[in-house]
Amino acid sequence: MKLSPLLLAAAAALTVQSCKMKSTESAVGGDAAARTYVAPGKYDELYNFVSGGFSGQVAVYGLPSGRLLKVLPVFSVNPENGYGYSEETKPMLNTSHGFVPWDDQHHLALSQTNGEHDGRWLFANANNSPRVARIDLKAFKTMEIIELPNSGGNHSSPFLTENTEYVIAGTRFSVPVGNAESPLDNASYKKNFKSTASFIGIDKNSGHMNVAFQIILPGMDLDLSRAGKGPSHGWFFFSTYNTEQASTLLEVNASQKDKDFIVAVNWKKAEEYVKAGKAKKMATEYYHNTFNEENHTATSEIIKEVLTLDPEELKDLVYLIPCPKSPHGCDVDPSGEYIVGSGKLAALIPVFAFQKFVKAIEDKAFEGEYNGIPVIKYEAALHGEVQKPGLGPLHTEFDGKGNAYTSFFVSSEIVKWSIKDLKVLDRVPTYYSIGHLMVPGGDTRKPYGKYVVAYNKITKDRYLPTGPELAQSAQLYSIEGDKMQLLLDFPTIGEPHYAQAIPAEKLKDQSVKFFDIAKNKHPYVAAGEKATKVERKGNQVHVYMTAIRSHLTPDNIEGVQVGDEVYFHITNLEQDWDIPHGFAIKHAATAELLVMPGETSTLKFVPTQPGVYPFYCTDFCSALHQEMQGYMRVSPKGSNVPLKWHTGGTDSTAAVAAK
Ligand code: K7E
Ligand code: CUA
Asked: What pTM did the predictor assign?
């Protein structure tokens, strides 16, 4: 089939056309304002966690208002609160290729128990330097980041099994295993390049992640994935493209075949093989970074081996289901019975039935093999096809009432259809070129329903112009009636991909308000002003400083010399909600600190010139916040100014302190 470049050209033309055709005056229902209005002082109904795309972060919005509540730093440094800049958080961004200050964040998964969101953790993927993060939903803080060995682009990730047994991470870009060098041509690709599906085990109580095992698959692009649930629990389904195994001009070369695959992985079987000692230990190196709540400090651990499983050797582990054409989304309905493949270049949506898939395996209804893995006959696993749904299907979510909602990038719309009889029921335009969509709980066994949110790729004329780069955009629709109804546009940070939402009740009462200072085990904590001090160790100067409304202790420091490494360890002594203190010092080549009540954070500063350096609290914390300031005197290298410090009248020197 040589249709694809044509189809793509048509698709491109349509994108332009659809943007021209639709004006901003879209029909918004008369009661839309009332349905999204959250009065001042009132709370939203839902938390909406939205991937930050190329910002590397995760944003938290309230729904239905669309108000931005917080940006959670995850994979990118965040000068606003010192994430990735403070000595305590730097290790979070360590990788086998050094400190990485940025990533591309696409998908989010809320932890589940019995196939429902349990409000404990949020998992996030890094697409570029392959990693998965775990965010704690009590403190809204990134607690753990694990790197993935043998992965070249962690796109089909993170997706969860229904009791959070595993977080899955599939590779978008196949690479030679072990990151070996290889010539770049189609023959080498076929021979050397592999994709991997990593199963990250999650500790039931702590949430701690470990790479339990990896399945080494033939070279192709694993795009997205979903776990089975209910009857299909124990299976994982991945969409793939480039089963043509091309290494160049994929736009054309990866669009040759009529059908690519859905890769079905039996992970219960994989567990059996691992238990039976059938996994191979492979030498590798990857980082596992964890933030310790007791000492408020992250550490990095280097792991040197990984267990791998080979599906060519180990039977019944992996099956392939043909799926038209370069599928993107691969979504499982709430019953766990239906699997929807969304072929970006397909003119229909195939829906597979899990029961039929199982029967096809029993009956050996195979059409052949692909790199030693059995390929099931398309019709044998097919429940049916949604005919003429729209152009460029990407992702599907569910409302738990038997309906599916598919996003269409090219025709820029959401289409509602019935899973049972595959009839199109409704369609609404999106502004413009929708990527992901999300029904709250739409990926669980019990969708919350009520809304669908479109996360759009192109914003064009929806907001006031802001130069060449416009706000990214989401749109909220009601799905309560038969017809979908647009309620609200709201701008987002970065490029939004997938999102999750959870009723506010499940999270709001568990929110951490401050950290207990009595439990602070930071090695440089000053648990009270009496414990403040300044210590010199060679050319390192450690300042044990406290912050409380409205002074820093000590606020006068002398005896520091040019070239010293000065570590300001700031302990926030407040034990009250919403009273962070900030810390910045003039000419420091790093971001500020924003220290939460009861926490200790460290800013490193190496002065290069003698002088007097003011420092201050950056967060307006009280009526006398402006007075929350101090000075550090820096003398020339080798100067004999003694180390001394004080706040108010109580002078201390290193010599006095030693007695
Ligand atoms: Cu944006 Cu999930 Cu990376 Cu589709 S992916 S749009
Ligand atoms: Cu502390 Cu301002």
From this structure: 0.95
